[in-house]
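Exercise 7 asks you to align residues with tokens for two separate proteins.
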Amino acid sequence: MPPGKTFKGLSYGDWVAIWSNWLISRDVESYDGEDMLFLRGYVGYKAVSDAEGAMRYQDPKNFLDRTGDNKLKILKGTSVFVPAQVTVNAIGCDFEGKLIENEKDLRRAVNDDINDVRSIWATVKLNHSKQCIKLVPDLRSYRIETPLFKLTVPEDSALTNLMDYPMKPGVFDAVAGGYFVLLPDLAPSTYQIDFGCEGPGEYSTRGVYDIAVYCDTRKEPNDISKYRCDNSRKKKVKDRFCFG
């Protein structure tokens, strides 16, 4: 979906706000077959010592591996939300040792973080091919910033304590920004989506997902011709991502 367009009545900024609440939720590892699949990069920051306020470190070689036996299976018609780079912050939280007190400071903090990114990528391989294809021709044009939204951090959030700046439980006025791609409807096939970013500083994150897209044969049991996995079908799937 191109920037500036809406999907199901929601803008990219709206979807990023929804994704941000999902990321900080207690059920981030689950997928129950709904019609939107959220992806995420690796999160694994830990304090280097037991001292209060100790520096936190994440091995830049680590990545979220959802390939092979860990692949995801979705039905045709399921949309996929890809976060190549994300920054989320909130009023009342810290940024570079300073308390964020208002929306102006909040947006400045989010954009300063995004501006320091050294590299971003989002690619796809089809049917176990060795050829990587860009998800979009220019990922930098998919820079998104949300409206001010309510971010709910539950006490049993799965990931907040593994983030570079852990957030306390509560409800916050937040802003999120970064580079995101929404794929509204993947054709039946097998995809490997690789995405992530490097910077600022030593920060890095990466996610690699194998996603198998199937037809729901229960809906159209008597007409499988348009979903045949023949050579012409494979070519059409490949052409959808061949942007040069």
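Second protein for Exercise 7:
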Amino acid sequence: MTATDLQGRSFLVTGANSGIGRALVEALAERGGRVVLAARSETRTRPVLEGIRSRHPGADAQFLRLDLSDLSMIQRAAAEFFANGRPLDVLVNNAAIAGSRAVSPEGFQLTYAVNHIGPFLLTSLLLPRLQQSPAGRIVNVASAAHFQVKQIDWSVLERRTAPKLSAFGDYAVSKLMNVLHARELARRFAGTSATASSCHPGVVASNIWRAVPQPLQWFIKLFMLSNEQGAETPLFCATAAEVARTSGSYYDKCREVPPNPLANDEVLARELWDRTERAVTATRG
């Protein structure tokens, strides 16, 4: 590995202003990659951009305003990305939330909006640009929490008027959706050079826990990995040559491992795709 082994390759990372996303874009830029930092706040992202440019003069690092809970903003962000004419080799769907009690602007429970529905729409919108790459790649940052899921209650993809507390079970289901989404993308990519994968970054002391009450948040983070450690497996999935030779796989500690058996259910993966597509379409009606 050299300091410029990613020279000429373009990456878009969601949730790039903090946590795993921040550590990931810093590592990509260090290796010469062109990075788009997609996040809600330009103010909070600016120090990350300035740090990258300071350490790596001439680095190509840009901010893209993106709120994954807001489908109309996702559409605007994708349009802005296309208007800039930037290439895209790798999309890393990293941003996520846990333990929320809120609904998105379109009425979806926030955990599912941010962790699955928003990334699903963003990925679909950016696919044309990804497929122009000689080896387009999508990485869904999931979680080992998906192993806890025994079934999916499809009502979680329905819109609601009142917020409902999102428990750990909801987070786990949303992460299973990430793995299923990658599996279905891989099926749809068959016969092309594009690939998709999902991964477990480890239990990381990142901003994903921002909705958890502060005293508990502080305590549980004492036992978690650093953001840099958490970025290692997503970085592997985004850059390793061996990942380009397979598609639909799930990784942990930079190794391919079997996911929850539910993630191997092709019918379930197609149903998730169809139901999510209908949920997104219904918001435009």
